[in-house]
Amino acid sequence: MGQRGNPGMDQQALPLLMTLRDCAQRPHAPFYTPGHKRGRGIPAPMRELLGDRPFLADLPELPELDNLFAPEGAILQAQELAADLFGAAQTWFLANGSTCGIEAAVLATCGPGDALILPRNCHQAAIAALVLSGAIPVFVQPDYDPDWGIAHGVSPGAIAATLAQHPNAKAVMLVYPTYYGACGDIGAIAQLAHQRGIPLIVDEAHGAHFAFHPDFPTPSLAAGADIVVQSTHKVLGAMTQASMLHCQGDRVEPDRLSRALRLVQSTSPSYLLLASLDAARWQLAQHGLELMQRTLDLAAIARTQLAQIPNLRLLTADQACTPGFIALDPTRLTVDVSGLGLSGFAADEILHTKLGVTAELPGLTHLSFILSLGNTLADIEQLVTGFQILAQSVQPADGLEACSPCGEGIAHSAIEAEPVLSPRAAFLARSEVVPLEQAGDRLAAETVCPYPPGIPLLIPGERISRGALQLLKAVLAQGGTVTGLVGEQGLRVVQRNG
């Protein structure tokens, strides 16, 4: 677990935030960026929304504020405190979100033509990392739950078989937990990777809180992961886009990670974001166990009361019965509404627009909700009341049963994907946009990802099958979201003469 409590580290300190505060309060004439000059040039509507104080602290890399890419002062101290708290050997602050951390992790471990083993339900940032690095993906199909229409984690057996087939792979990447809070056997997979002498990279974007209460699944650093990327803003107290990258062990060169981050991070990082990471770490060091216990208590109340509403079903840890799903984050609520005769999209529309309850992710048959340290009992009461009203007022929707198999079909078609070009080669090739009806047998030039189940259906360089097109149309017809389309019905494909 995290929170090592190194007596040499003052976890009550706030080196970056306090330095930023002092700089913001120091009277001086600013002849540096940004152009608003400590808020004096901010447009009036922004001032009306936020006031003046945030802009006083919107500062560049002044001497006192250290340099994100060569830290020696306040940033270095803040990162060292974070590493100690989370249980890493070294931590980097990220101002470009977890996306840049995942990209840097792949750039630091894989080169052109190197094989990277990763799950098919990886984040789109992993595909971007393949494009940037030139690495070749070796996809492992996650355990799929046809009852819920969602993908879980990958099993140790699947990773072992893939490593045997690709003994020269340079790294293994996992998503842990999944968007729905499902966790696989990360410790076993770490051992498999290490037996081959290669690092395990973990996209732990939704698991930054695991280290701060024993009732959460095992944190990936504690399980032996070499690189861990966390979205501190998603479930903890940092500002949106503020994340961390943690590293341990000797299988990855820290200097190579630093150099990779210089490629994918902005050269003008927001000190508001960086300071929020320092503050989030401080908050956990002071009150982490208490805050996580309160969040778990709220989640338990929500689960108990939602389970009493007729025709609703909750994803629970009792359903963790596959090797890719052995534990569940109890603060992630996934609610099946198909028993109400509604699609998840229709339920989300009613809850959001009429009942004041907004989900994180709607799907064909369910909705997922994130509970975190910022939620209150009033939030839980509104969530439960919203579902009670929903259950009492809706009428069965025509055609729901016909749409429910879409998720399972998407997972099956992903297994049959035919790679022709590497993601990098396809992305850099000349491309054109064609209607869905004309995209059959063409090579995808863009990642296309339907929600649900959130598995990339098309990866750059893969041949577009007729079945994939049918599934895209089905998801769109049911109100689902598809990222990667051009307009409403266009696909970007590699030119035949490209």
Any overview of this molecule?
This protein is 38% helix and 15% strand. It has helices at residues 15-25, 44-50, 53-56, 74-86, 97-109, 124-133, 156-165, 186-195, 232-235, 254-264, 271-307, 344-354, 377-393, 400-403, 406-415, 423-428, 466-477, and strands spanning 90-94, 115-119, 136-140, 144-145, 150-151, 171-175, 182-183, 200-203, 227-230, 243-247, 313-314, 327-328, 332-336, 361-362, 366-370, 418-419, 431-435, 449-451, 462-463, 481-483, 490-494. Strands 1-10-9-8-6-2-3 form a 7-stranded mixed sheet, sandwiched between helices. A 4-stranded antiparallel sheet has the order 11-13-15-14. It has a two-stranded antiparallel sheet with strand order 4-5. Strand 2 (115-119), helix 6 and strand 3 (136-140) form a beta-alpha-beta unit. Helix 1 (15-25) packs across helix 11 (271-307) and helix 7 runs parallel beside helix 8 (186-195). The longest helix is centred in the middle third of the chain and has 37 residues, at 271-307.
Distance between the termini: 51 Å
Q: Main β-sheet, in a few words?
A: 7 strands, mixed
Question: What's the gyration radius in Å?
Answer: 23 Å
Strand-residue fraction? 15-25%
Number of alpha- plus pi-helical segments: 17
Can you give the mean pLDDT? 91
| Poorly predicted runs | 397-415
User: Residue share in helices?
Assistant: 25-40%
Strand order of the largest sheet: 1-10-9-8-6-2-3
Shape: globular
Q: Could you give a short description of this structure?
A:
With 498 residues, the protein is an alpha+beta fold. 38% of the residues lie in helices and 15% in strands. The protein has a seven-stranded mixed beta sheet, with helices on both faces. Strands 11-13-15-14 form a four-stranded antiparallel beta sheet.
